[in-house]
Amino acid sequence: MEQKTENKQENKTPEKNVGHPGHIPQTAGNDAGVRPPRILAWETTAACNLACKHCRGSSTIHSAKGELTTAEAKKLLDDIRETGTPIIILSGGEPLMRSDIFEIARYGTDLGFRMTLATNGTMITEEIAQKIHDAGIQRVSISLDGRERTHDIFRCIPGCFVDSMRGIENLKKAGVEFQINTTVSRFNVDELEDVHAFTKEIGAAAHHFFFLVPTGRGAELTEFEITPEEYETALEWLYGIHKKTDLQIRPTCAPHYFRILRQKAKEEGIEVTPKTHGLDAMTKGCLGGISFGFISSVGEVNPCGYLPVSAGNVRETPFKEIWANAKVFNDLRDYSKYLGKCGACGYKTVCGGCRARAYHETGNYMEEEPLCSYVPPKFRTKNE
Ligand code: SF4
Ligand code: SF4
């Protein structure tokens, strides 16, 4: 599953992407309140030409029954426009498997959205790259989990690294900006430095690191899950590299990065402000249901693609109403409902823990994040 392509402007002028709040009412008792969505990932199709080991959607070559039609897709964009102008990530499966993808992208561009595309890159011929450009798609994210050998093993198709690289070259020729998304797992945790160097070498605008969430086919990958300690080390490495690299770096679905950032800054005697840490000072770890949402190929709305708790279906309820009123969203916006270590944690408003990992571990999305090694004071024993 290709999930998130974010905005180049994010570190500079995030307000530009927020749009106006429309008429979304505030909900009493919510710490985060109801804010307009800033980024929406839309699984335009569940079909995919690859069979990656960690796929969130367990995608296959076939589309799911009842995927949104072109007319329904356009209506969805009209409905979303009622909430503002979030960044729209056309995702999948593999969005290029959908024959009307450029018609949808152009429709969104004309409505004023920043349209982006999350793809495995293997289908981007010169002609497709030009169509991407002409539809007004402003950034394409391509998944690369390592150099050729690592990537092909993880993506389960020999030669797909070479195909993705060809896609990148075609995007460059067409003048389309691209970023690299790397899924972090035990499989490649020792290769992150190398894949980051490679990302720079090929001229990407950004490098986003996705931390594996065990769901879909990824649920079978327990041997590839990293431990809380490896997770901590990887995030500390990211904090270090963030300061040195000129590429936009973003850890995704690694909410406790924002706890580590504050702990490290404190050790260094630096106050975390937009001036010292850019957008990192203003955003939080898990944005699911707060400013990020996911729409499935059949119109189900979820906090994110890894948390299969339905907030409603856009075929039955306008997106704006779902966004404002769904129980799961309002739960996630209310920090007083967070449980376990996350509930007692002083960093919960900047981190929040991964609600999807909590859900897959315990069945309750408000429970504590299982992969965080931080112990809040209330949970420490006398000897800690
Ligand atoms: S719940 Fe987890 S996977 Fe979903 S957006 Fe939050 S951090 Fe990412
Ligand atoms: S305990 Fe929960 S809220 Fe606190 S840093 Fe860890 S994951 Fe984040």
From TrEMBL:
<keyword id="KW-0808">Transferase</keyword>
<keyword id="KW-0408">Iron</keyword>
<keyword id="KW-0411">Iron-sulfur</keyword>
<dbReference type="InterPro" id="IPR023885">
    <property type="entry name" value="4Fe4S-binding_SPASM_dom"/>
</dbReference>
<dbReference type="InterPro" id="IPR034480">
    <property type="entry name" value="Heme_synthase-like"/>
</dbReference>
<dbReference type="InterPro" id="IPR013785">
    <property type="entry name" value="Aldolase_TIM"/>
</dbReference>
<keyword id="KW-0004">4Fe-4S</keyword>
<protein>
    <submittedName>
        <fullName>Mycofactocin radical SAM maturase MftC</fullName>
        <ecNumber>2.-.-.-</ecNumber>
    </submittedName>
</protein>
<dbReference type="InterPro" id="IPR006638">
    <property type="entry name" value="Elp3/MiaA/NifB-like_rSAM"/>
</dbReference>
<keyword id="KW-0949">S-adenosyl-L-methionine</keyword>
<dbReference type="Pfam" id="PF13186">
    <property type="entry name" value="SPASM"/>
</dbReference>
<dbReference type="InterPro" id="IPR058240">
    <property type="entry name" value="rSAM_sf"/>
</dbReference>
<dbReference type="GO" id="GO:0051539">
    <property type="term" value="F:4 iron, 4 sulfur cluster binding"/>
</dbReference>
<dbReference type="GO" id="GO:0016740">
    <property type="term" value="F:transferase activity"/>
</dbReference>
<dbReference type="InterPro" id="IPR030896">
    <property type="entry name" value="rSAM_AhbD_hemeb"/>
</dbReference>
<dbReference type="GO" id="GO:0046872">
    <property type="term" value="F:metal ion binding"/>
</dbReference>
<dbReference type="InterPro" id="IPR050377">
    <property type="entry name" value="Radical_SAM_PqqE_MftC-like"/>
</dbReference>
<keyword id="KW-0479">Metal-binding</keyword>
<dbReference type="InterPro" id="IPR007197">
    <property type="entry name" value="rSAM"/>
</dbReference>
<feature type="domain" description="Radical SAM core">
    <location>
        <begin position="34"/>
        <end position="244"/>
    </location>
</feature>
<feature type="compositionally biased region" description="Basic and acidic residues">
    <location>
        <begin position="1"/>
        <end position="18"/>
    </location>
</feature>
<dbReference type="InterPro" id="IPR017200">
    <property type="entry name" value="PqqE-like"/>
</dbReference>
<dbReference type="Pfam" id="PF04055">
    <property type="entry name" value="Radical_SAM"/>
</dbReference>
<feature type="region of interest" description="Disordered">
    <location>
        <begin position="1"/>
        <end position="33"/>
    </location>
</feature>
